[in-house]
Amino acid sequence: MAEKMIEIRDLCVSFPLDGKRTLEAVSHVDLSIFRGETMGLVGESGCGKTTLGRAVKGIVPISSGSVLYRGHDVARMSFSDRKRFQRETQMIFQDPYSSLDPRMTVREIVREGMKAHRLGTAREQNDRVDSMLELVGLNPEHANRFPHEFSGGQRQRIGIARALALDPAFIVCDEPTSALDVSIQAQIVTLLKEIQARMGLTLLFISHDLAMVKYVSDRIAVMYLGQIIELAEADDLYDHPQHPYTRALLSSIQLADPDAEARRVRIRLQGDVPNPIDLPQGCRFQGRCPNACPECRTKEHRLVAVSPTHLTSCSVGAAPL
Question: Which ranges of the chain have pLDDT less than 50?
């Protein structure tokens, strides 16, 4: 069995609003990410995908539950182990325009982590910067330029080089292509897959682009209002979606075959996403679900296995596996 690189146990992340109310962004999430795999995380905007990724990386504090890295609870790590965790886990941010310091040159940006962790001499760090820029398809001769002198796709490559500079084992990719043109998106995704194969990386790939997530992921978790509502291998999820929300999401993907696209029935959800500050009792999807029953209004469903590799919190109306 593959090693568990990241193990998330009953994770909750809440943000206080006015002293009385709280916003529950992530609610009781259990998820394991195995060494060498790409775990896709999909869902609507505002469902908690980015918050979950940042909580795993340690950028936002968790309210309860735990995150384990290689079997060790991050919250209980010693100072030296915590520092190693920060070095071995990196993040590629969504916006290549705001995630790079405009006052720093590319060399300073990529080298910053190495300086913070005191890795190598100045010459070794500069050599590492040059090799990372070459790896992501940038000219090392441009390392003394500033971020505003590069295009959006080139800036995201700089962000990838920065993440790779510390030789990480695990990277959170937070919608790394959403701010880019479609033609550039394919280049960045292909680059990430090539680098992953070369360096043996483990990835958490967060996106709302369902077609792209299927292309890059080994397994996919579907998130709705802070909860994981379905988890399966990529092909299995797309071929046999079980949760009504997953089926609605996948029905929105445009098919390349015009005849198949014309025959397909698109599922249109009714109603609005509930207010995350005032969540309904029972299933959080009940108000938009075409298969909701009285039990859904009182009982909050948890993930159950419908096959050895496929978990869902609801399979009402789904085709049998």
Answer: none
